[in-house]
Amino acid sequence: MTSSKTWLVTGASSILGAAVAETALQAGHKVIATARNCTKAAEDNPRILQLGGSWIELDVASPSTTKIVEDAVNKAGGVIDVVVNNAGYSLLGSIEDMSEDEIEVQFSTIVYGPVRVLKAVLPFMRMSESLARELQPFGIRVLVAEPGSLRTNFWSAYVEPRAGMNKAYVGTPWKMSFELSRRTQGPSQAMLSNVLKEF
């Protein structure tokens, strides 16, 4: 990371998203950070503003995502070089306990959300010469990073079905694996920052 680039980081209110945003800012890049609640996100992650980043309110489950991101990029000068689709949450429960509405919102967040963001930024990225085979002719490099188990708030910020857990699952491997996952500890945030610097 030598020349300054403009980054868009969705879900920057989470530990992982905030670490990505802060690492990019510390390396001299510009960062547009997104969160569903910017006021709370800025309070929880003050270094993003202190380091020169900016926040925009964005719920990627909303169809208005593409327009909001387009406006934010235009406001930032019409240039976007790096996009980190990090927004998401976990809906934990058995299929029979989840309502169709809950599944639809989850699907809209983790599937349609990244698509909406990409639809907004790709025209700008093509213009700035900034996925893989499809975008290779435009000089756009696509990377899927799977960091594994990290000390984040992912497991404490999960959503359970409104119906609760079916009693039939109490004491089953599914329930036990869920409890174990919540206790799993991964590498520290400092280690994560070192990994991100390699990108």
Task: Provide a compact summary of the structure.
The chain is α/β, with parallel strands linked by helices and 199 residues long. The protein has eight helices and four strands.
Structure, described:
The protein is α/β, with parallel strands linked by helices. It has one domain (6-197): 3-Layer(aba) Sandwich (Rossmann fold), CATH 3.40.50. It is 44% helix and 9% strand. The chain has 8 helices and 4 strands. It has helices spanning 15-26, 38-44, 46-50, 65-75, 100-127, 132-135, 173-183, 189-197; strands at 6-9, 30-35, 54-57, 82-84. Strands 3-2-1-4 form a 4-stranded parallel β-sheet. Helix 1 (15-26) links the parallel strand 1 (6-9) and strand 2. The longest helix has 28 residues, at 100-127. The radius of gyration is 18 Å and the shape is globular. The model has no long low-confidence stretch (mean pLDDT 81). Keywords: Oxidoreductase, Signal. Belongs to the short-chain dehydrogenases/reductases (SDR) family. GO terms for molecular function: oxidoreductase activity. This is Short-chain dehydrogenase/reductase SDR.
